[in-house]
Amino acid sequence: MKILIIGSGGREHALAWKCAQSALVDEVLVAPGNAGTATEKGVRNVDVGAEDLDGLLELARRESVALTIVGPEAPLAAGVVDRFEQAGLKCFGPSADAARLESSKAFAKEFMARHGIPTAGYAVVEEVEEGVRFIQSLTLPVVLKADGLAAGKGVVICDDEHQARETLEDMLSGQSFGQAGHRVVIEEFLVGEEASFIVIARNGQMVPLATSQDHKRRDEGDGGPNTGGMGAYSPAPIIDQATHERIVDEVIAPTLAGMQADGHPFTGFLYAGMMLTPSGPKVLEFNVRFGDPETQPILMRLKSDLVATVLKVMAGDIDKVELDWDERTALGIVMAAGGYPGSYAKGKPITGLEQSFPDHVKVFHAGTALDDAGQVVTSGGRVMCVTALGDDVAAARAEALKSLAFIGFENAFFRADIGHRALAPES
Ligand code: AMP
Ligand code: GLY
Q: What is the pTM assigned to this prediction?
């Protein structure tokens, strides 16, 4: 059968690479893909944009695609799953209604409040003075979030009231975040350690994937601005058995039950961004898709057939799904273009990719393209995610760094400390 992956980042390269390994699959199409998917065995890029719903539907029909898996949030929020299902095509992901868990932070907060799901205290505001009054009632710092989709950049942590007011004014004016900022969620600041908890869900049922943790800040030591994610590893040792059970019981189960009760059952990858606070796990955000870069290390560890798994879930047999994981740790380091998450140059040639990397290393492409001469060049802020398996976090990181050292482009930067929170203090 043919599989279609929608998207063009590192997550989609990992999904395409994994699906191409399935015994059920003849060919994986990626729309639009990147230079990594263009050169992956059994994978073919098709020049259709991830948000061109008509083009995607036409492509799936023309190529008789048996199953489509959606990578990013934008097509989900735009209703790609609804469109495919109306056309009688299998497409794995949530409906546009269910995707509001990610596409509207106000929707997600109100949903959590209604269903008793632990999360930071909040208010949704559309007006500056109302917002400032709420900020004055909180302890600093406070967290401001643009309501709509902002590619992981719509969250600002404000250390003082002056900064909070300026940020609020900026968001509400539409200057930095456009329509996404016309409503703002103001939240109390949570203290603790973050972890990503991703499950495969259908209606009220779910199967958890391996745990993971990413590093959202740009700089080593977790400083600097928020990014889409500078690196990730799996498993996340901070999620012990007891915490795992609490997240399932207090967050995932009531979320899936609540979505069903509210009339928009959730199917797809559900990602709960968790803060593990002294008073228990709390939800920072929901994503309605696989994480990027969490997908890269998680899929490096998944031994089971992803396509067979998704088909089983869609057939209503989620209770028969058993996932088999590599015991080792996988760790991915993002190579980014200088300037990211702000503006950065594109079209810079990337060298070193012709290396033969060892079996326990995979170089997933993200923002890359092939130029007219067939040279791999940069085309985005996050350019690569060099991912390696190792016996522990330190070993996986050392292996990733060793391979990463062969790869270069102008003004490349990366964090050499990915996984530092999982390392014992003595190391
Ligand atoms: P989000 O997109 O909502 O996950 O926010 C991005 C990042 O901002 C999170 O990964 C956290 O590091 C941080 N963050 C968001 N909300 C809070 C909060 N209420 N308290 C502390 N940090 C937060
Ligand atoms: N790594 C965070 C995200 O995918 O949103």
A: 0.94
